[in-house]
Amino acid sequence: MYVRLSYPLEAYVPAWPGTPQLQLEPLMQLSAGDVANTFLLHLHNHIGTHYDAPNHYVKDGLSISELPLEYFIFTCPLRVELPKGERELITAADLAPHREEIAGCDLLLLDTGFSRSRSEDPNKYVSEGPGLSAEAAAWLVEYAPQLRAVAVDFVSLASYRAQDDGNEAHRTLFRGKNGHFICGIEDVDLNQIRNKCVKRVFAMPLWVRGIDSAPVSLLAEVE
């Protein structure tokens, strides 16, 4: 059985404050007598569920189309529940009790429960959300040698109210250590896998050359 962990893109998507929204421009329309329906999509690459490659924060880091394919296929995913409220940061102390499990995973799904705000209070979701602290990012680089990506159920690895710390968290993950870096997957719907055993996760981004990030279709195989 497969479930989708990506939110659909639509006319309004909760996103980092100031991010341009998706615009759909009809080009050909059956209703107007054209032979087919076609659209022009005006799409910011950090809107909705999206995959951040190292080039997002690291000048010489790999772009989304340069990543090895194994960065999109996860065979040892791990979901960890870490309840967080407004502006709360995930710390190294939060992760430490799960050190043994995290050390063997290739995708870490951080389930804070904050995603409920996405539909209930979108403004709170985008501007008052939690984040991954820089110290937690450094902990992952040190103690998660198999980890290729961190997925979060809030709008960005960085909390809007703690941007300096969040920027450093991004840089720390994307720089990595000894050639091993960790990517980020943001605005993920983890409601679909609670109380389920996740066997594999597939991340399928838009393959656009030269960009730092792309919207991604995230699919989980569950039992």
From TrEMBL:
Signal peptide: none annotated. Gene3D superfamilies: Putative cyclase. It comes from the Bacteria. InterPro entries: KFase/CYL, KFase_sf. PANTHER family: CYCLASE-LIKE PROTEIN 2, KYNURENINE FORMAMIDASE. This is Cyclase family protein.
